[in-house]
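We were asked to recover a plausible sequence for a given structure. The inputs and outputs are reproduced exactly as logged, with field labels preserved.

PROBLEM: sequence recovery
POSITIONS: 263
GIVEN STRUCTURE:
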């Protein structure tokens, strides 16, 4: 089930995926002026299909091709064949192939079927009322983009911002690139963050700065400990001594090690 609310002219769909006692994560979809931003995972297929059928998107913007962001894209291809689905150019070929997912991700998020995607047409995406800058940002994965509506100060961040204080990272993530991306996004002076997993945040600059400062502080500790001769594995045990269950469930795909080794 998705709960539906509104922020200004943005319709917000809010769902949750969980493995009880192990891991739980919210999922947010955003629709405005005919544009759907991300499709969510196929695990929430029934609820998301109802949401999509109600709003009938004219365009779909995928922030990146992980299965929790484009799990319903193939269904949208079938149901709305004239609706373009955009990804970063480096994600188009990947989108067209079956996703080879580890077992825990298939169980948690569901399958991601191949879908037909188009590359974003340059650095902007237009709707009737809005103009979004499409900004390729490193950090989370190679094909990740954020969408920025400058006049409104709206920043749709995908997975670049989920929390100011990450304690684990994904195996594809590069936190040195995260820092660069955060510095750039702060220079835009956004007012509102629309995150794919933590929802709408009105203090955008404050939260982005908190995340940036936190990662810089972790980087300083990592550098200091490396200079003292410690391995990254030992550094992880010092800075992040606790391992959440997802580290074991994912067999290390999610781990604090991915934060440390990339700083």
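RECOVERED SEQUENCE:
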């Amino acid at each position: 089930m998705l709960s539906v609310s509104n922020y200004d002219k943005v319709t917000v769909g809010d769902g949750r995926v969980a493995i009880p006692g192990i891991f739980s994560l919210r999922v947010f979809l955003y629709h405005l002026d005919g544009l759907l931003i991300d499709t969510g995972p196929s695990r929430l297929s029934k609820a998301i299909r109802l949401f999509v059928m109600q709003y009938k998107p004219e365009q779909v913007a995928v922030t990146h091709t992980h299965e929790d962001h484009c799990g319903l894209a193939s269904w949208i291809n079938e149901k709305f064949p004239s609706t373009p689905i955009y990804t970063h150019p480096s994600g188009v070929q990947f989108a067209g192939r079956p996703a080879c997912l580890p077992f825990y991700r298939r169980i948690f998020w569901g399958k991601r079927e191949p879908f037909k995607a188009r590359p974003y047409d340059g650095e902007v995406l237009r709707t009737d009322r809005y103009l979004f800058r499409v900004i390729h940002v490193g950090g989370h994965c190679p094909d990740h983009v954020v969408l920025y509506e400058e006049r409104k100060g709206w920043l749709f961040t995908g997975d670049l911002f989920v929390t100011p204080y990450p304690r684990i990272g994904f195996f594809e993530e590069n936190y040195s690139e995260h820092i660069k991306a955060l510095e750039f996004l702060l220079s835009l002076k956004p007012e509102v963050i629309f995150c794919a997993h933590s929802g709408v945040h009105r203090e955008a600059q404050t939260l982005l700065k908190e995340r940036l400062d936190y990662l810089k502080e972790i980087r300083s500790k990592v550098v200091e400990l490396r200079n003292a001769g410690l391995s990254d594995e030992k550094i992880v045990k010092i800075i992040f001594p606790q391992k959440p269950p997802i580290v074991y469930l994912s067999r290390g795909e999610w781990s604090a090690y991915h934060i440390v080794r990339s700083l």
